[in-house]
Design brief:
Elements (H helix, E strand, L loop, with lengths): L4 H16 L8 H30 L3 E5 L3 E4 L2 H8 L2 H10 L4 H5 L5 E3 L3 H15 L4 E6 L4 E8 L2 E7 L10 E2 L5 E5 L2 E7 L2 E7 L2 E13 L6 E11 L6 H5 L3 H12 L16 H24 L7 H4 E6 L6 H12 L4 H11 E4 L10 E3 H7 L1 H22 L2 H7 L2 E2 L2 E3 H7 L3 E4 L2 H11 L1 H6 L4 E3 L6 H7 L2 H11 L20 H26 L8 E6 L8 H17 L8 E6 L7 H18 L8 E6 L4 H7 L5 E4 L11 H7 L3 E4 L5 H8 L5 E2 L4 H10 L4 H7 L1 H10 L12 H7 L8 H20 L1 H14 L5 H13 L9
Parallel strand pairs: 1-4, 1-13, 4-12, 13-14, 14-18, 18-19, 20-21, 20-23, 21-22, 23-24, 24-25
Antiparallel strand pairs: 2-3, 5-6, 7-11, 8-11, 9-10, 11-12, 15-17, 16-17
The chain binds ligand 26Q.
The site of ligand 26Q has 23 residues, from α6.
Family: Belongs to the glycogen phosphorylase family.
InterPro entries: Glycg_phsphrylas (IPR011833), Glyco_trans_35 (IPR000811), Pyridoxal_P_attach_site (IPR035090)
EC number: 2.4.1.1
């Protein structure tokens, strides 16, 4: 399609008239946004259709990425970018006296995820399409995404995220592709002509209706599909009996109970609660997704025994791991394959990524609950487990080992074990994480199946996180090294030749400075706080969790504050500390930490004796769109998790790509960032992996030792509970207790001293302007390897075995 400015102007006016019977002057921003969005969708419709046609016609292998979460954010800007029509649209709209960036701000974030895992899925989709890989997303169309966070009097308050209130221009409801998902009921076995079959009766049927969103590749014709499922009643919305008796609420009870399945994203990304509704959500989208894959597969005329030659299914953590049993069920019960054939196909099809080693996050379901909700699936898991346990018994002749590895044990179904046994590939998300999985957490399984375990270090899409979030920097990069980095992000390394070039350093600095000023204006408008744009912007944005140690960051700030109070002339570079973090609504310690950050912010920002040197800002409602604003203005990126606890981290990569210097523990992908940039371009502190593992094994850590021997820590901890932070004594007593009486699970006190020193080093480095800028450039130059394009190429080649397909129009 040959788009010109004039054509866009005309199409836009026509569309506005068709949709709203309005002209521009009387229209609202929302209507203008919807008009542009609809137009963009219209522009991709041919590519979308042709992509699907070509996949069917050529019978290519396709991959389906199953995930409970897709944290997409906004699509207008990234769709325009990938279509290569941002400037054209901006100019066309500008002729019509419309500001494109204002329209972008109207779009709600699709916040269908908690954090890293969901955002990774979104970056992967962008890379899959941009690399012309036939691959799609499969998930849940939640009516409500991750809650919106308000801070009231320093406390987090959660507001439902009604992201669909203004409609969603990107999705298409496909009623004709709906599937039925069955819950509960009874299963009986029937022997007929010597063949055993299973009859499922008295189940509750739920209708799964798909909504498709186009996933547009960068500068190509590929448009893949993100298919999200919505739950509906199969037949009647009303129980007419109850209705005619006047029992109105009873009449719609069933409808609400069914629709609740896809109503809301669970906002907890750790501490797993064994909630029935969560398991219902999992089976709901997995069953609907696999049914729709099988349906399309058969429609293309392919024989079922070649399923794994044409289909790869990737499961994002254990959340979709019932896929193993569901695929078995369909192959055996509906396609009449033998157990052995079905098992071969299933394990060849499915691959699993693990995202955590925190034991409290490992999913397990009580047997009774599982059996009642999914009786046939449970039977299949029992049989999978029986056969697996036989193999383990045969190999080790050790019943303890059999018990330790059993998928069903101690009254629970262990989803990670099911995922490992039922797939051909198990990967961690960074080198260190995979090592820990192999050698510690899942060593049983990696000894049994050494060929399954592999590493795929996470990545981020440089299109959203550099080109879209930081257009000025992208332009400068292209001006300096040409545009090849856009499709070959590794070529960013060519920037190294300019790292000492003074002009280039100044340009890099100028861009950062400009970003900092823009964000300072945002902060002033929203919070009424004046930020010193010459201060170091020191940023920690991520979910709030004890292992991510936001408290360590706060302790550094408090220490700095007390030092400034003691010595008004303390020579430090002014700093502004930014935090952004949502706490799971039931995670009380995390919520107390938010209150602590806000109390410290209030204390410091209102203290005129220090607030020209340091300020603290808690940014409300951290989200994808806020991340795109804040990351490009960071000088310092805080990646300070307890070593071994952060599987990978991905914001560390986004910051690096935008030219920040990282202060980090050697945890997760920080290890690979450190390997890439070297000692001189990152500030590393804290315990190493073995120290942490030793403390944990020997149980010989004693946090009081640090409290008693370090007067700075004593002061900070005492002040938490004596009212000196301007709040009641009890306000932070849980944090205090956690760190002292409960012995500081994540070694905050142990790493404190080293962290303070590391910040001292940052302050010194920043003074050497040329050296600091060189560091920033070096980080950008090495960030290309963390493009999710690289990650996806590895997944495609080593796990999915999918080929690139160029779509012809
Ligand atoms: C499971 C069951 C019930 C309720 C909630 C959950 C649940 C939901 C989300 C469990 C875990 C999550 C999310 C985990 C997550 O985001 N992990 C992060 O994944 C990133 C991508 O691999 C890594 O970079 C991070 O290190 C890891 O913490």
């Amino acid at each position: 399609m040959n788009l010109t400015k004039d054509r866009i102007k005309n199409d836009f006016k026509k569309k506005l008239m068709n949709l709203y019977s309005e002209d521009i002057t009387e229209s609202s921003k929302l209507h203008l946004y919807v008009t542009l969005g609809s137009l963009v969708r219209e522009y991709v419709s041919e590519k979308w259709m042709k992509t699907n046609e070509q996949y069917s016609k050529n019978q290519v292998k396709q991959v389906y990425y199953f995930s409970m979460e897709f944290l997409i954010g906004r699509l207008l800007g990234s769709n325009l970018l990938n279509l290569g029509i941002t400037d054209l649209c901006r100019e066309a709209l500008s002729d019509l006296e419309i500001d494109l960036s204002e329209l972008e701000e109207v779009e709600s974030d699709a916040g269908l995820g908690n954090g890293g895992l969901g955002r990774l899925a979104a970056c992967f989709l962008d890379s899959i399409s941009s690399l012309e890989i036939p691959g799609h997303g499969c998930g849940i169309r939640y009516d409500y995404g991750l809650f919106e966070q308000k801070i009231i009097n320093g406390y987090q308050v959660e507001i439902p995220d009604n992201w669909l209130r203004q409609g969603n221009v990107w999705e298409i409801r496909k009623e004709n592709k709906a599937a039925i998902v069955k819950f509960g009921g009874t299963v009986t076995s029937v022997l007929e002509d010597g063949k055993l079959s299973f009859k499922h009766e008295n189940y509750e049927a739920v209708l799964a209706v798909p909504y498709d969103t186009p996933i547009i590749g960068y500068n190509n014709n590929t448009v893949n599909t993100l298919r999200l499922w919505n739950a509906q009643t199969v037949d009647k919305d009303f129980d007419l009996d109850s209705f005619s008796k006047g029992e109105y609420s009873k009449a719609v009870e069933h409808k609400y109970s069914v629709e609740s399945i896809s109503q809301v994203l669970y906002p907890d990304d750790t501490r797993i609660e064994g909630k029935l509704l969560r398991l219902k959500q999992q089976y709901f989208f997995v069953s609907a997704g696999i049914q729709s894959i099988i349906r399309r597969f058969k429609k293309n005329g392919l024989p079922i025994n070649l399923f794994d030659h044409y289909i790869a299914i990737h499961i994002n953590d254990t959340h979709p791991s019932v896929a193993v049993a569901e695929l078995m069920r369909i192959l055996i019960d509906e396609e009449n394959l033998s157990w052995e054939d079905a098992w071969k196909i299933t394990t060849n099809t499915i691959a699993y990524t693990n995202h955590t080693i925190l034991s409290e996050a490992l999913e397990k379901w009580p047997i009774d609950l599982f059996k009642k909700l999914l009786p046939r699936i449970f039977m299949i898991i029992e049989e999978i487990n029986r056969r697996f346990c036989d193999e383990v018994r045969e190999k080790y002749k050790d019943e303890r080992q059999v018990h330790n590895m059993s998928i069903i044990s101690d009254g629970n179904v262990k989803m990670a074990y099911l995922a490992i046994v039922g797939s051909h590939s198990v990967n961690g998300v960074a080198k260190l994480h995979t090592e820990i999985l192999k050698n510690e957490e899942l060593s049983n399984f990696s000894n049994f199946y050494p060929f399954k375990f592999n590493n795929k270090t996470n990545g981020i899409t440089h299109r959203r996180w550099l080109m879209k979030a930081n257009p000025a920097l992208s332009e400068l990069i292209t001006k300096t090294i040409g545009e090849s980095w856009i499709t070959k992000p590794d070529n960013l390394i060519n920037l190294l030749a300019f790292s000492k070039n003074e002009d280039f350093q100044n340009s890099i600095h100028g861009i950062k400075q400009n970003n900092k000023v823009l964000f300072a204006n945002y902060v002033k408008d929203k919070y009424g706080i004046i930020v010193n744009t010459n201060s170091i912007y020191d940023i920690q944005v991520k979910r709030l969790h004890s292992y991510k140690r936001q408290v360590l960051n706060v302790f550094h700030i408090l220490d700095l504050y007390y030092r400034l109070k003691e010595n008004r002339n303390l020579d430090i570079i002014p700093r502004t500390f930014f935090f952004g973090a949502k706490a799971a609504p039931s995670y009380y310690l995390a919520k107390e930490t938010i209150k602590l950050i806000n109390a410290v912010a209030n204390k410091i920002n209102t203290d005129n004796s220090v607030n020209d040197k340091i300020k603290v800002i808690f940014l409300e409602n951290y989200s994808v769109s806020l991340a795109e604003k804040i990351i490009p203005c960071a000088d310092v990126s805080e990646q300070i998790s307890t070593t071994t606890k952060e599987a990978s981290g991905t914001s560390n990569m986004k910051f690096m790509m935008n030219g920040s210097v990282t202060i980090a523990t050697l945890d997760g992908a920080n290890v690979e960032i450190h390997d890439a940039v070297g000692d001189d371009n990152i500030v590393i502190f804290g315990m190493k992996k073995d120290e942490v593992l030793n403390y944990e094994k020997n149980k010989n850590y004693n946090s009081y030792k640090f409290y008693n021997s370090d007067p700075r820590l004593k002061k900070i901890l005492d002040n938490l509970i004596n009212g000196s932070l301007g709040v009641a004594n009890s306000e932070f007593s849980n944090i205090h207790k956690y760190l002292l009486a409960n012995n500081d699970e994540y070694f905050v006190l142990k790493d404190f001293d080293d962290y303070i020193k590391a910040h001292g080093k940052i302050d010194q480095l920043y003074r050497n302007t040329a050296k600091w800028r060189e560091m920033c450039i070096c980080n950008i130059a090495h960030s290309g390897i963390f493009s999710s394009d690289n990650t996806i190429q590895q997944y495609s080649k080593e796990i999915w075995k999918t080929d690139r397909i160029h779509v012809d129009i």
